[in-house]
Fold each of these.
Amino acid sequence: MTLHDPYDTSNIFARILRGELPCHKVYENDHALAFLDLFPQTPGHTLVIPKAEATNILDFPPDLFGPYMSAVQTVARAVHVGLGADGLSILQFNGTAGGQTVFHLHFHIIPRHAGVAMHGHGNAPMAVEADLKQQAALIVAAFQSG
Ligand code: 5GP
């Protein structure tokens, strides 16, 4: 996919947004949905996607960045608290040449612990279902704790 290919409504994240595919949801509001990555670079790796259709950062409506980035920050806070992370790596890729593999705009929130390496992007094993369930519960609880 180049940076200028049109939005493909059959991409995996569009299907998750429509409820056609399952996900471990941790947060949702009018503008964004956040769920756990199936191939986490560290445990608790979370994706925040906008509800608006956008292939990458270039075609996202500028007036929606405020609410979308606010959701990214909200989820980052909950991932930090829920997973007890010492740090957060927040990543975002655009176009095949830029490392993007799912063509619906998203930010990766990757919890980090001091001295612990993360798997490379696109080079992580599939998560165990029970672990995802447990990590999602920790993040959701962090929202509820304020
Ligand atoms: P990108 O490479 O586009 O920046 O990130 C896409 C992310 O989606 C990757 O980290 C990949 O592990 C994740 N991913 C791919 N397929 C699925 C899926 O079916 N469900 C979930 N939750 N994550 C997925």
Amino acid sequence: MSLLETLRRRIAHDGPMSVADYMSECLLNPTQGYYTTQTAIGATGDFITAPEISQMFGELLGLALAQAWRDQGEPSAFALAELGPGRGTLMADMLRATRGLPGFHAAMDLVLIEASPKMRALQAEALSAYAPRWLDRVEDLPQKPLFLVANEFFDALPLRQFIRTGAMWSERRVGLDDHQNLAFGLGAPTAQPALAHRLEDTREGDLVEYSEIASVVTETIAQRIATHGGAALIVDYGDWRSLGDTLQALRAHAPADPLDTPGQADLTTHVDFEVLAQAARAQGCAHTRLTPQGVFLERLGITARAQSLAAPLDGDPLTALIAAHRRLTHPEEMGNLFKVLGLMPETAPPPAGLEP
Ligand code: SAH
């Protein structure tokens, strides 16, 4: 049975589902979910991510986290963690770049949080020189200093959508139309305490999004960092606060309708970094300013790194390297759309490339 058929039956039985439940089924259904069945990332997949564009991305993030480790007195046992490591490319580049740093690899407990068995297999291959272990949930992160990276992880987390109705909110749901096709509908208006702050910047009929799970994941990471030390670099597509529907589907590098071909397209949303920053603060963890990816990478020295990689190259490899540098940093490419938020203990300096 296709995922579409599974969803039709579920909706016929239980009624319309939240956008969050729909996203969860499409992305992570154990047998038919997008991440559980496809290896979607990369030039031949449905979308390409920063670490797949160039090794420079992972190298610079690795050095930034290693610097944070040094700034905090080189704790002798710590977790180096990644959320949603994809093909394992980012972590492999981070580890290669930090190999020469005395004590860093010896002290680390390498932990990966990944839901998809297919992705876990790719990560095991990419990281076979190290000894990673996989965790099912962020709650399983060890109680140690935590140095963590997450690139394009939060944009895959399920979120709910609400339309303002007076001072209440009607939830947008996925149901069935008269032809048994998936269709959006609206639930009855209810009070939503988590959206109290959105009564300030919305009007009747506006759509807002809220990811409870993004908030809970951030709280857990922030608790570890506030208690034991560490730092997190969260890189994603989004801004401080979004307004309107940001749910989008991507299939073979082209936009698709999120309700078409469930389970066969990547679904993402813009990340509201405000929610993450609030969750961190609630745990007594400090956060940096939200910084455009291009600015962050320039501050970390991406141009010097590109020049040194370029030195022995000419022809197509050189052209490709210049294009990759531009793609990661230029404001009209990923440089401005992607943002970086750092988390750190209140007593520690912000990670390199970021400002308090
Ligand atoms: N960070 C990688 C991959 C981004 S794609 C890169 O930059 O290339 C999102 C990744 O998060 C995939 O590995 C996917 O399987 C994983 N993922 C998505 N939702 C998840 C969840 N709820 N729990 C754990 N992993 C998840």
